[in-house]
Amino acid sequence: MIRKKLFTTMGILGLCTALAMPAYAAETASQAETHHHDQAISGFIDYEEMQKTLLQIEKTSKGLVEVDVAGQSFEGRDIFTARVGTGDKVILIQSEIHGNEKTGTVALLNLLKELSNNSKQSQAIREEVTLVVMPQMNPDASVADKRANSMTWADVVADFPQLAGAEPAWNYYDDRVIQSYDYAANPGFDVNRDFNPDFDYVPEADDFPGSSNDPGWFITPEAQTSRDVYTALQEEFGNVDVFIDLHHQGKYYVAGTDNPVTLSLSAQFVPDPSTPEGAEYAEYADTYNYDFSRQLNVAAYESLQSHGNSVFSNISLYSQGLDLPGTALASYALNGSGTVLFEVRGQTQMMGHKEKGKLVKAVERGLTGIIEAVADGSVETLDPEVYETIPTTAYRPADL
């Protein structure tokens, strides 16, 4: 059965930063959200199916997988976690913080099935690792097949009266945003900008509207739930060793080639707090571990490359030099987690069933490479400088 687990709210945190061109660089109000209803999401698992699948996995696992309700979305849909393993190395993975980026959810459900089987490898991983996944963590957006959630600025002010008179957050999608989805009629927030490295932050009017290189505010219930899952794991284990966020991007190329990128990876979302460039984050210098994040990315990259010239080829490094403290990746990295961004090629409207299957497998293979390397400790032997040799992502505006 699904148990309601209400995580303790530790303050109200902040909303912030944006992904860009590619998705984590600076988004603008006129950036197009390619929407999709022809191929659409029929080939992907929907919210109701996801719940049924989680329950089935929990049942067939005979107690190895524990499914909980961690919180609710703005529209009242349950946000789920599924947990497998009893090890002291903690890995947290979330998908569909943008509701039209769906391959990650399929990959996570497949991963849960694999890790709850009786193979010796799965048993060994479970002994070393506690894996917690949050599939479709922005369910309102998932159901509506859109990027943003369904919360209005008026709803925010109702929850936080001190914001009355403040300018709406910069990542609020309304009539200022020109996209194929009608945000003028159905506004909402890009939840992936609603994070703050200070988990006790309380929203202040002076911090709005903010910008992509400012921390966010945790004003959306979806981001609050992610934070509460994270902080509960911190309290239980002392640290969340690894955090992975699963996304989609547009059509990009491996730099210097004509090869479309299958999957981009990244370990960098804020400047290193121990450097002059990252001086504003100096209070996190003792917890930030960029080398470990790079080792995790190398583990994923080498796992994918080990399969040779196949669907796992054409892996690139996402845009670097970013300063996005309002993303979950940046906020959790500053608080001690090794972090990995996955960005698979294309939005769901671009995918037929064959393409979808290939990209899901690429995500699964990359995730498995990380989990296995963490479980057996081999990630610690990887040279973080290999990260700097991964080919970069090139952007071709004419092809988008």
UniProtKB/TrEMBL annotation:
Keywords: Hydrolase, Metalloprotease, Protease, Signal, Zinc
Signal peptide: 1-25
Top-rank taxon: Bacteria
Residues annotated as domain Peptidase M14: 43-344
One Gene Ontology term of the molecular function aspect: zinc ion binding
InterPro entries registered for this protein in UniProt: Peptidase_M14
Cofactor (UniProt): Zn(2+)
BP term (GO), one: proteolysis
GO cellular component: extracellular space
Family, similarity comment: Belongs to the peptidase M14 family.
Protein name: Peptidase M14
Phylogenetic lineage: Bacteria, Bacillati, Bacillota, Bacilli, Bacillales
